[in-house]
Amino acid sequence: MTTKIDSMNGVKPQAPKSSSPSSSKMPSTKASDLLLSASSFSLRTLKLKTKQQELLIRVTILCLVYILAFITRLFSVLRYESMIHEFDPYFNYRTTLFLTEKGFYEFWNWFDSESWYPLGRIIGGTLYPGLMVTAALIYWTLRILRFAVHIREVCVLTAPFFASNTTIVAYFFGKEIWDSGAGLVAAALIAICPGYISRSVAGSYDNEGVAIFALLLTFYLFVKAVNTGSLAWAVASAFGYFYMVSAWGGYVFIINLIPLYVLVLLVTGRYSMRLYVAYNCMYVLGMLLAMQIRFVGFQHVQSGEHMAAMGVFFLIQVFYFLDWVKHLLSDTKLFETFLRITVTSAVTLGVIGLGVGSASGYISPWTGRFYSLLDPTYAKDHIPIIASVSEHQPTAWSSFMFDFHILLFLFPAGLYFCFKRLSDATIFVVMYGLTSMYFAGVMVRLILVATPAVCLISAIAVSATIKNLTSLLKSKNKAIQTGATKGSTGSKASSKAMQDQSLPFQKNAAVALLVGAFYLLSRYVTHCTWVTSEAYSSPSIVLAARGAYGNRVIFDDYREAYFWLRQNTPPDAKVMSWWDYGYQITAMGNRTVIVDNNTWNNTHIATVGRAMASYEGEAYEIMQSLDVDYVLVVFGGVTGYSSDDINKFLWMVRIGGGVFPVIKEPDYLVNGEYRVDKGAAPKMLNCLMYKLCYYRFGELRTEYGKPPGYDRARGVEIGNKDVKLEYLEEAFTTSNWIVRIYRVKPPKNRW
Fold it and tell me: Is 575 helix (H, G, I), strand (E, B) or coil?
């Protein structure tokens, strides 16, 4: 011990005479003593209090969850390459590239002549710029720090980065509404939940990639402001709302849910100054900030979708006024009379103002998308272009199970715990969960909005259940009191003995339930990993399938076709296709398109639909009026690709017929059945879309044992194998026949 102390004080120790037979072992003895001294010092230094240990564990878990949320979204990059996915992200990438090269002023005033020919599009006033500005700021920051990255890599990894940030917000949100355990579980659940991963994998450069982070952040900051009554938190929630408005049109959900929540608190007698400060600041400042977005403008004071927020704003002023009057009036009956008069007058004035505003046209009615959320059949009956989008279809139960797994069963349990411990915060998360689950059932795309609520409420169920079970396991048996002299004491002892006898059974049940809970959570992790890897990490622009021997087969026809367009067509060529492919043609093919995924002009899209559904001669006249040089169609008859234009054709007919009555859907059906074989309708067999897809297809044998012209996507032999083209000629067909491009011939009197 003396040796250790001396060595720490810098004094060279002298080895005892009997410690070593020779002087050659003195260095090893000194080294071992120094090592023991250093280890003893580090252990004394790392002694932490219980709260510090808990904080260290929480921070460590959060860091691991943060990393997990990022790396689990990189399957697509590892399996394919760093690329942009889907359709809309290509427009976002194109605009972000323009922003980084030209600057914000040029971006804000950009008129895009390469889309919606001959109309064009004002980019700055027709988009939510939050995603592009965010990616550009990250890119410029990395460049300042001397990281040589391309803007494409930033766009590819933006969604995973914000998904990781969402886990941090989920932790603080769960901690605010319940406890830190629920926050940790919520962060872990949302990090790998398929409902969120579907829109946040690497390459999914879409608005939702940052919008879900902004949505959850806004909700957390507002609940924090309600709980504390702090003006600073209310201001922060207003800025969070502004970021959400700049990023995604789903901000309408926020500006309707928060007023609904405030209204419920007012009706249930939970009005407080905390609520008054939080809502007033968030609404007024958030509205003023949101008006700075050109695409939103004055909708907060002119749109019917925003009137609920304004109505609740005026209503809470009435509550504040009544609360002030109540302190002035000592007579209860007089106050009740004043209350009835005030409420009646306020409601009457509100109804009159809403009626006058709607009648005069100052307050615009609800949009078709808003109606379709309240009535799932509205879009199908009135706006077919909305109903034609696959992500706007009602959600099947299998989709809920696929995206939520065991969370679908934990969600009701979490609601039970929330109702059991009602507070302002739990009331909000209950309302968020119930409303978002309803909208998720109406539209499959909105599962994304419901995912944070489901994860938070499920985390409450997991945290509360595990805490109850572990507390039961920690309980110890107490000795049974014996030798009681009084009868009452004896009866108490006997009842205590009966309780103690049941403790082993309770503990065994608790252990079994804990094991079952951890098993289900492990299955959830396995399911999420599989779904992420197989279902949500495949870019739609690069298709993959399994070969006869189980090997992966890649179909890169889309990029092959767009590269051909870029290299082999004039720079001013106009390409006509269905609107699904407009963004990709403009971004990757660098060619002007007639319509694209913005779908702002229904008549223009209907004109393209009419051309596709008409005979070749009639379609040629339409194409000449639009200055079309090339026509692009997507065909899956060779590979079995089902998301092709033949399967989308009826929507072209419906959208075109909605504007041009000459196009009638029954003309393309046989006894109400859509067919492409010999029994198909004559107009179907001779329309432009059929000819462009099946040109030369009748000569091709696609499958062993099947006749030539066998369509693998629909499983039938086509009805018209001898397709002849008069006004168009084949220009290019990709290697797997998925994309086919035709050149429009000039008029015969021209050359």
Answer: strand
Q: For residues 192 and 537, what is the distance between their CA atoms, to the nearest angstrom? A: 13
User: In 3D, which of 537, 458, 529 has the Cα closest to residue 192?
Assistant: 529
Q: What is the mean pLDDT of residues 637-652?
A: 92
CB atoms within 10 A of CB 242: 23
**Which two structure tokens, joined as six digits, stand for 111?**
């008129």
What are the angstrom distances between the C-alpha of 645 and each of 94, 210, 642, 709, 729? 25, 31, 9, 17, 19
H or E element: which one contains 60? helix 50-71
Residue 538, CB-side half-sphere exposure with 13 Å CA sphere: 15
Provide the residue type at 683 as one letter. K
Per residue in 493-527, pLDDT tens?
A: 555 454 555 556 777 888 888 898 899 999 999 99
Q: Check: CB of residue 308 under 8 Å from CB of residue 259.
A: yes
pTM flag (> 0.85): yes
CA gap 443, 375 in Å, rounded: 11
Residue showing tokens 């998301």: 643
Taking Cα atoms as reference points, which of 400, 534, 501, 513 lies closest to residue 466?
Answer: 513
The answer to whether 401 and 408 are in contact (CB under 8 A) is yes
User: How far apart (Å, rounded) are the C-alpha atoms in residues 527 and 596?
Assistant: 36
Name 717's bridge partners: 710
Token code pair at residue 57: 């564990």
CA distance 608 to 613: 9
Residue 632: CB atoms within 10 A of its CB come to: 26
Site of tokens 């929630």: 237
| Distance in angstroms (rounded) separating the CA atoms of residues 438 and 660 | 35
Find where tokens 């992200």 sit.
Answer: 89
Q: What is the mean pLDDT of residues 545-564?
A: 86
Q: How confident is the model at residue 364 (pLDDT cuts 50, 70, 90)?
A: confident
**Which residues, including other chains, have CB under 8 Å from residue 698's CB and lie 6 or more apart?**
708, 709, 718, 720, 721, 722, 723
Interval 624-643: pLDDT, tens? 999 999 999 999 999 999 99
* Cα(168)–Cα(191) distance, integer angstroms: 10
> What residue spans of 535-556 are helical by DSSP H?
none
CB 373 within 8 Å of CB 437: no
Tokens of 275: 């609520």
**Are the C-beta atoms of residues 343 and 337 closer than 8 Å to each other?**
no
Residue 287 has pLDDT above 90, yes or no: yes
Rounded to an integer, what distance in angstroms lies between the CA atom of residue 206 and that of residue 448?
A: 13
Residues 6+ apart with CB under 8 A from 163: 69, 70, 73, 191, 196, 197, 200, 209, 213
Q: Is 73 in contact with 159 (CB distance < 8 Å)?
A: yes
